What we know:
Shape of chain B: globular
CATH topology of the largest domain in chain A: ABC transporter involved in vitamin B12 uptake, BtuC
Strand order of the largest sheet of chain A: 1-2
Shape of chain A: globular
CATH architecture of the largest domain in chain A: Orthogonal Bundle
CATH class of chain B: Mainly Alpha
Strand order of the largest sheet of chain B: 1-2
Strand content of chain A: under 5%
CATH architecture of chain B: Orthogonal Bundle
Distance between the termini of chain A: 21 Å
Oligomer: heterodimer
Number of strands of chain B: 2
Largest sheet of chain A: 2 strands, antiparallel
Largest interface: A-B, 41 and 38 residues
Distance between the termini of chain B: 56 Å
CATH class of the largest domain in chain A: Mainly Alpha
Number of strands of chain A: 2
Largest sheet of chain B: 2 strands, antiparallel
Helix content of chain B: over 70%
Strand content of chain B: under 5%
Radius of gyration of chain A: 20 Å
Helix content of chain A: over 70%
Number of helices of chain B: 13
Order of helices and strands of chain B: HHHHHEHEHHHHHHH
Order of helices and strands of chain A: HHHHHHEEHHHHHHH
Number of helices of chain A: 13
Number of domains of chain B: 1
Amino acid sequence: MTIVKKALPYFLAVVASFIAAGIFIALMGFDVFKAYSTILFTSFRTPNGFIQTLLKFVPLVLQALAFTIPLTAGKFNIGGEGQMIAGGIGAAVVGILFSSLPAYLLLPLVILGGIIAGAIWGLIPAWLLYKFNINEILTTVLLNFVALALIDYVCTGALRDPGAGHPTTVAIGVGGWLPLFMKNPPFHAGIIIAILVAIGVYIYTARTTGGYELIATGANPRAAGVFGIKVRRMFVLSLLLGGAIAGLSGAIEVAGVQHRLIEGMQSNYMVLGLIIGLIAKGDNRVVPFVAFAIAILEVGASAMQRTLMIPVEMVFIVEALILLFVLLSDVVRRK
Amino acid sequence: MDILVNFLRLVLLSMVPFVLAGQGTMLGGRTGVFNVAQEGMMLVGASLGFLVSYYSGSIFLGMVAAMLSGALFGLALAYFTTALKMDQFVIGLALFFIGVGLSTLLPKIIIGITLTPPLIKTLPNLAIPLLSSIPVLGPILFNHNILVYASVIISVGLWYFLYRTQKGLELRSVGEHPMTADSLGVNTTKNRYWSTIIGGALIGLSGAYLPMVYSGTFTEGMVMGRGWLAIALTFFGGWSPLPILFGSLFFSAVEVLAFRVQVIGSFLPYQFLQMLPYIATIIVMIITFKRARVPAFLGLNYDREKRSV
């Protein structure tokens, strides 16, 4: 009963936003029924569709966690994009410089390179917050734009692949590629990493002292401080962890999907991650499920654009509306 | 000398989006509504302003449309935070997402994908008679498009309204201590609505400046973080109209430097110059954030039925 009660507002929010967007789609002169059946069922019609959904799930759940972990401590990390790019750069540079290493060395190094680079990118705003008390929201956002220029520099600089038309680096060593479950369509092992991270985050926040301190800090920093929790250090730690996880998502993109660094690889994963995190209301346990639902919508959106010529942004608006309605359902319940 | 004159001219030209978005943010914030949807609202303003100008052939109508779209976002923000008492930051983010999505969706469904970008005529320069023929100062100050002059007039007008009129004092009191303001008969709700709506209109207009002056067309993500920079600018200017006007000269100068030195050529790779506006802003925040004067009630919602604020 409680699960039904908890799920009901989500369900109503989804229905409401589909109705709202449906009116818009109909006004544009498209077939609403066809559009929605494409969005909802592409993931389940073919094995390929389901694998695409799992692949989309990986960056989405990691980006969402990169947002919700700092949120647990009451801090907003809007820098997942920059941290993901930094992670991608770290992974690619390691993978190219040590390309001759065997897989059992290179793959961990590539992943670690991404995690460390992402953590550094998250550490900058954390340090500015710790040292100068500067609001982390703006600094994390601004660092995204710095990272966008940085990836352009890396992709057009010394590591550039001159054969590629788009700014791209040369490929990383084969040892750095994530193993595949399946060759066609390529289905890499990133999903296992993502699930392990999601479980790890759940155990950390729900079952350990450190995680409890994080939650206490977010719930009431002053009270937490009185009980001897080093609140400011928890802020730094939370942003560092968020950066590391976002960096990991960049490393997986390089090691699993592209095998090289490509400008634009960050897609719009960060914004989707924020939407997922906010729909889940910052609850780390709920994040993976919401992320999977959004992955279904995203795969459906590309199919809808291909077959029905409805721009993918339509689905993005649906997702933003779901968020808005979920937030509104809180207000309704309060009354 | 010519380079310097040209540089200063460009600084004035490029300050407009910062001025308008900064004043818009300030106006809402002065009643306690902290808007973080600027980036999305500016994108919608740019997109819609471009589309309406393209189809109507009138830049003026484009500006009106951009302002209306911004005002609508402002109304939404005010309604969700003032009437429904929802978290300002979270609602701001949600509106930001909707803005980003709408701004690319609209041109895609209305114009579709074309090989050559559809262009509108950019805003013409209005040389002010006599003043524009003063050597050096004339070309720097008095030969600009109408929005350059308008942004200065709006800033001074806002200063006069906020600091020299009764209504302005009332508006500021809502952002400092709404309980007191309320008890003295100031309508806090009305003030919050109107400041956020008019502020939103200014933010929408600032977005429309980009296609109307710089590029003549709309491109995805063309605001390039200026919306977020505007928030930093507002803090930098202490939530006060005239310091924001002067602060925007600095933000604009950095932007011009980042994009013009690129053309001149330099010893640094151009990507590092592109980082300049964002890094400079972070440095400015380090220097000014501690001393920044902020409305006491910024970001909070006022519920008159609660006992304490």
